[in-house]
Design brief:
- With 700 residues, this protein is mostly helical.
- It folds into three domains: 306 residues, no CATH class; 149 residues, no CATH class; 187 residues, no CATH class.
- The protein has 27 helices and two strands.
């Protein structure tokens, strides 16, 4: 059993697997301190203003702060505008519903249900789905107030206060994120570029001095580095019009740095066989590129400073670095192309009205909310109104995503409830002013913000922790010792999660297991096409596709296994995780093989022909494995490969070109590494005979 299989098999199920994943995300996610400080500062101001001016719904205001505070200014402003729009639309809709149907409860419930259904539907199909999430929350939340009073004016005032509490908190958050500790995506992109160039230089420096203990970026780090640059490039384009006008230039610069970083992961261990000052020249060119990133100057290198001819007999990774630097220098010397206006994006997904999945999702979510409302009204238990909100909050496009959101909601609410309980017992009796309230609240908000600053896999747990704590202790304009709110809210969440889980798993369940298998097969076919036909530039689209598959696999791991057997479900997870881990290594090995193949001299012709035959064999192996994944998932066969022969007597031409034989040896070494990675793709299912792929001997 290979290492990837062992690693994948170590994962457990349910909360145990989620906890391990959350711990890894918390440790690894960068930029946490900056985002946490901005969130804390905005929360402190909101608490002070709400308590001083007696603005109700402080917990809702803090939720707005947490949701709007993002990793950079662009996302913060975008989310803030969407939330303002959603809140205004939600409050306006509910006031109109109350005006028309206040005296007709059945009609009010029917119209509110229709609005809720439309909100859940638009959450899935609209570009600004977050705005309709707010509409659904407000529509269903106000239903719990209608039954508390017979005064329509009081309900209108409550609705308007909801708008005030949300919008003013968003405004404070936007001001804080604009004036204090701003995180500009353009600056973040430059820092990321410089950081990766520094890593490339460190790796070249280690090669120059013969240091074999230097840390080499692994496949996971290469993948994350490429995706980070692409994400920051997209945010920078959204943020800066001047940056957007030179989008093609910045895209070329990002692609160049990605090529350099990928090549640095495949550098040889020593400079044996190299002549001249190749490595120092490459380091100098990388330093010039870093300077151009910092200063905005045009990147220029001497024509002879970076060898790019295969006749130089460089190792493929060094050849790739030189080729990337030379190509970008040529790009900088060319005139700027005319920019074509960007096509406006759709407001709705293309299949918004043809795919029944979206209507089914909205119907399931509405049914779960109505069942929660029915239980809430039948028991006349005001404290469990969260049962209705939970139905919408945990509703996600797939069973796995719904399960993860449910676990995060339960975990965050439980942690917030325990902290609030401890505060009520030991701290609240000693607090009698705003200063004490802030001293009590800010450590909890700091912890919540630290969790919310992680990736999207864990951020909701921090928001839920803060919201539960705020509902228990910060909704009154004075000290509170009422513990029933803590108990009732937790029970409402548990009941809402249970109802939603049953509804989503029973009615049109959106399991992603089959989609994951098909998507992984497509990724392997695209990888095979790249191996067959070497391409310039980093494999960023393949890294992005792999990241999407990994995210889907994480969701599938949380899908309920009772529908087709827990053991079968667990075996599926083990194999898919193993294939994903091995695909990452194959992708990195294929990039190294591509670089050596491009650096291989054309004479004598045996070397290029052998490399081409091996590339064809490898591509056929990957395609056959992908076909097994889709057509014969119960019997996926491990590929077998034959390496291009290197143990043969050199010809007279080869004897006069020792560098050529060195280049061929490097190609064979990279091919052996690639063959090893492909041959360790996990066997899946019953025993079967390995496919007879063409070997070098059969093709000669």
């Amino acid at each position: 059993m290979n290492t990837a299989m062992d690693t994948a098999g170590q994962s457990g199920t349910g909360f145990a697997r989620l906890a391990r994943g959350l711990a890894d995300e918390v440790r690894a996610y960068p930029g946490r301190a900056n985002l946490m400080l901005r969130c804390m500062l905005a929360s402190a101001i909101v608490i002070t203003v709400s308590m001083a001016l007696q603005v109700p719904f402080l917990a809702l205001s803090l939720v707005a702060v947490f949701f709007v505070t993002q990793s950079n200014v662009v996302m913060t402003r975008l989310i803030g505008i969407v939330f303002m729009l959603g809140t205004t639309l939600a409050v306006g809709s509910i006031i109109l519903v109350l005006k028309l149907t206040y005296d007709f409860p059945l009609l009010r419930i029917l119209i509110s249900t229709a609005l809720f259904f439309a909100s859940a539907y638009l959450m899935r199909v609209a570009k600004i789905g977050a705005a309709f999430l707010l509409v659904g929350i407000v529509v269903i939340y106000v239903q719990s107030f209608v039954d508390l009073t017979d005064q329509a004016e009081a309900l209108v005032r409550i609705s308007l206060w909801v708008w005030v509490a949300t919008v003013y908190a968003i405004a404070v958050t936007l001001v804080i994120n604009t004036l204090f500790l701003p995180a500009e995506p353009v600056r973040q992109l430059e820092d990321a570029l410089l950081g990766q160039l520094a890593a490339v230089d460190a790796r070249l420096a280690a090669l120059e001095r013969g240091d074999t203990s230097a840390v080499t970026p692994d496949a996971s780090r290469v993948e994350n580095a490429a995706l980070t640059l692409q994400k920051l490039l997209r945010f920078s384009t959204m943020r800066d019009p001047a940056f957007r006008q030179r989008q093609t230039f910045h895209l070329a610069r990002v692609a160049t740095v990605s090529r350099l970083f990928t090549a640095a992961a495949n550098l040889p261990e020593s400079t044996a066989g190299l002549t001249g000052s190749v490595v120092p020249d490459l380091r100098d060119a990388c330093a010039r590129l870093a300077k151009s990133v910092r200063t905005g100057e045009r990147f220029v290198i001497a024509s002879a400073a970076v060898p790019v001819s295969p006749a130089a007999a460089l190792p493929g990774s060094l050849f790739e670095i030189g080729n990337a630097l030379r190509a970008f220098a040529d790009r900088c010397a060319a005139p700027e192309p005319a920019e074509s206006p960007a096509e406006k994006e759709r407001m709705l997904v293309p299949d918004a009205f043809s795919n029944p999945v979206y209507a089914q999702f909205a119907l399931k979510t509405s049914l779960a909310a109505l069942l929660g409302y029915l239980f809430y009204r039948a028991t006349d238990w005001q404290g469990i109104h969260t049962v209705m909100l939970t139905a919408l909050i945990v509703a996600q496009p797939s069973l796995g995503a719904t399960g993860r959101r449910s676990m995060l909601r339960i975990a965050g609410a439980a942690a917030g409830s325990l902290i609030a309980l401890a505060m009520v017992i030991w701290v609240v009796p000693n607090v009698d002013g705003l200063t004490g309230l802030l001293l009590m609240s800010m450590p909890v908000i700091a912890l919540s913000a630290w969790l919310a600053a992680g990736s999207e896999r864990i951020s909701y747990a921090g928001t839920q922790l803060m919201f539960t704590f705020a509902l228990a202790l910060l909704e009154q304009f004075g000290p509170t010792t009422d513990l029933t709110e803590i108990r009732d809210r937790m029970l409402g969440i548990l009941l809402g999660v249970a109802i939603s889980a049953v509804i989503h798993a029973s009615l049109w369940p959106e399991a992603e297991g089959e989609a994951l298998r098909q998507r992984l097969a497509r990724l392997l076919r695209r990888l095979a096409a790249r191996v067959r036909q070497p391409q310039e530039g980093p494999p960023t689209p393949l890294w992005a596709e792999l990241a999407d598959c990994e995210a889907m696999a994480a969701r599938v791991a949380l899908e309920p296994g009772w529908q087709f057997g827990e053991a079968q479900h667990e075996a599926f997870q083990v194999h898919m995780q193993a294939v994903l881990a091995q695909t990452r290594e194959i992708l990195l090995a294929s990039v190294a093989f591509e670089a050596e193949r491009r650096a291989l001299p054309a004479l004598p012709p045996e070397g290029p022909r052998n490399a081409t035959r091996f590339a064809e064999t490898t591509a056929a192996s990957l395609e056959a494995y992908a076909d097994d994944l889709t057509a014969r998932p119960e019997s996926v066969r491990t590929p077998t490969l034959a390496l291009p022969s290197a143990a043969k007597e050199p010809t007279a031409t080869e004897a006069t070109l020792p560098a050529t034989s060195d280049a061929q040896a490097r190609v064979v070494a990279r091919a052996a590494k690639l063959a090893e990675q492909v041959s360790t793709l996990p066997h899946w299912g019953v025993a079967s005979t390995a496919p007879a792929f063409p070997t070098e001997a059969s093709q000669a």
